[in-house]
Amino acid sequence: MGTLDGILKEELERLAAAEKSYLREIKKLPKGSIQVKRIKKIAYPYLVVRQGEKVVSEYLGHRSERELEKLKQAIAQRKKYERHLKEVKRNIKRISRMTRGKRRKAI
Fold first, then answer.
1. What is the C-alpha to C-alpha distance for residues 34 and 49, in angstroms, rounded to an integer?
2. Is residue 6 part of a domain?
3. Of 35, 17, 30, 15, which Cα lies nearest the Cα of 77?
4. Would 67 be classed as within a structural domain?
5. How many domains does the chain have?
6. Fewer C-beta within 10 Å: the chain N or C terminus?
7. Left, alpha or beta for 5 (phi > 0: left; psi -120 to 50: alpha)?
8. Going residue by residue through the chain (107 aa), what tens digit of pLDDT does each one get?
9. Domain that holds residue 56
10. Is residue 106 part of a domain?
């Protein structure tokens, strides 16, 4: 079992490094989503973010389509990293249970 324990510990270390990396990258990227509100047939882009209990809409001004597209991509990248981070945390939990010897209850 020593070899298996070593492999699991290495995997835990790799997952911990991946978790730190994802957290660092997520911190750099913007939160929220972009919503377009139409007022008198004119489109106004807003960045909508939750701050505690409140949902705050921030007007993005007259930005070019390219800037809005970059912002959308950054938000999509953040969501992708958050999904990967969730998977990494789930794997850390599973492997931690394996190394401690805890088993699930039989159904």
1. 9
2. yes
3. 30
4. yes
5. 1
6. C
7. alpha
8. 578 888 888 999 999 999 999 999 999 999 999 998 898 988 899 999 999 999 999 998 888 889 999 999 999 999 999 999 999 999 999 988 888 765 555 55
9. 2-100
10. no
